[in-house]
Amino acid sequence: MIEAVTETTIRVRYGETDQMGHAYYANYFYWFEVARGAWLRDRGVTYKSIEEMGIMLPVVEAHAEYRGEVKYDDDVVVRIWLAEKRRASIQFKYEVLNHGKVVTTGYTWHVTMSREKRKAVSIPIFVNEFLERDPTVYERLH
User: Fold this and answer.
1) What are 24-61's pLDDT values in tens digits?
2) 70 lies in a domain?
3) Which residue in the list 18, 42, 74, 75 is annotated as catalytic?
4) Does residue 91 contact residue 131 with C-beta atoms inside 8 Å?
5) Which of 52, 64, 70, 80 would be 106's cystine partner, CB 3.0–4.6 Å?
């Protein structure tokens, strides 16, 4: 399995902060989603193209640990990598860095699900193929 890391930079918007000026905790899961989209584009696919092939990747578990501050207008880097793959599920892990320091870690589990039947299925060959891709040989989709 290729464990190449994808990095995405996100500038914290005012509306993503709480009354204390810190990034609101739930927004980290949105940032994880943004990073997953970038991870896929690094491998030449998009969520939309996967869904058009009949597979969905719903999040079935999400976790985050907050270890440091993120405030309005900070540029944070979200790092993502494929950490584990099972018969019908995959796990991504994340790090959020602020000024080069890891301030949040987390993971999400996703089930490969048939769009038509709405049930879990074994990871299809075409999905497994892009999960194993080396992103250095693909032009990133925009």
Assistant:
1) 999 999 999 999 999 999 999 999 999 999 999 999 99
2) yes
3) 18
4) no
5) 64
